[in-house]
Amino acid sequence: MNLDAFLELLTPRGQEALDAAAGTAGDDPVAAVTRLRKTYDADLTSAALTQATLRLRAREKFGADADLMYFTRTGLEQATRREVADHRARRVPAGSRVADVCCGIGGDLLALARAGCSVEAVDTDPLTAAIARANADALGFGDRVSVRAADASTLDPAAFDVLFADPARRTARGRTFDPMGYSPPWPAVLEMVAGAGAACLKVAPGIPYEFVPEGAEAEWVSYKGDVKEAVIWCGALAGGTARRATILPSGATMTPDPALGDPATGPAGRYIYEPDGAAIRAHLVAEIAASVGGRLLDPQIAYITGDTATSTPWASRYEVHETMPFSLKRLRAALRERGAGNVTIKKRGSAVDVDRLRKDLRLSGDESAVVILTRIGDRPFAFVCGPG
Q1: How far is CA 371 from the centre of its chain?
Q2: What is the side-by-side order of every strand in the sheet holding 367-376?
Q3: Please, are residues 78 and 170 in contact by the beta-carbon 8 Å criterion?
Q4: Strands 174-175 and 243-248
Q5: Is the peptide bond before 184 cis (omega within 30 degrees of 0)?
Q6: Where does the pLDDT of residue 174 fall: very low under 50, low under 70, confident under 90, or very high at 90 and above?
Q7: What is the pLDDT of residue 173?
Q8: How far apart are CA 360 and CA 116, in angstroms?
Q9: Interhelix angle for 328-337 vs 354-361, to 10°?
Q10: How many Å apart are CA 168 and CA 177, to the nearest integer?
Q11: What digits encode the pLDDT tens for the residues 281-314?
């Protein structure tokens, strides 16, 4: 979809085409095209059907708002889900003037506007900027948001209360995990931060610690068990801690306990706890181990074991039924003895190919089981578990 085709979607005729495209949901694609082409030209038909498809996909991230919003495939993929964006925006004081220097399709600027901020946003791609503008208008935030196609350098961070930056993490070769490959690159982002009184930087969860500016707070956020992003809070928005983990939708948050040393290690107990990924990224496994009275199976691997069943929102708990040095033959026999056919395989610190293992187990039972693969010292182990 090009810019002209998108802008036509915003006209009365384009809105009619969108409504018609929404009515083809579930139809055969060829039949849908044929139906719309009786009334609309090829470009408008394609644009309308593309939006109808993307709006359906976007409901998982944006809920009912998705039916009013506009997307590109890449923009939807990269957009922050609403719950995560709203969590982040609540930390920005209401009434703040925010510079959003890499706005994308506008998921974050919408959250900031909902939180009572006014936002001036830019994106280098004219189509993406136009979509962000249209999304703000569609959801009733047009009076709090301005969007234009421009480079991040055209905004002066010092002229705003807060700088928000979500540098692009895709290149022509695909996704990049190197902050130096971001757009803008990391040095340019930090230069903008240096000129801002407060800043919020959205980055990939795997950002190396050495890239976090001194004095900043790094927060890792997970949603329903999946790590979604890392956020770096700078200046007046930093919370006085170097690291934080937050789990959504509950909003529970955890920071380092300076009184804790390294967690103890010891043999497998009755239960194994798998910490939430945000806490692992934030190096808060010791805090979780202390909260459940547990110990690590191995000092380098984030599996906690214990002898009592303690509930915590920060870890999934499994009851250990059988422990063995890893052996395909022994593991298959143990699972078959339990009548297991539906097996969830988890691993950390293990070189086993999970897909290959699943095929090699050749299970056909009716029961369910959880298999945890890990390493203790230099020996691979398998744990056959059930719900804790």
Answers
A1: 26
A2: 295-298, 301-306, 271-275, 315-325, 379-387, 367-376, 340-348
A3: yes
A4: unpaired
A5: yes
A6: low
A7: 67
A8: 56
A9: 60
A10: 11
A11: 999 999 999 999 999 999 999 999 999 999 999 9
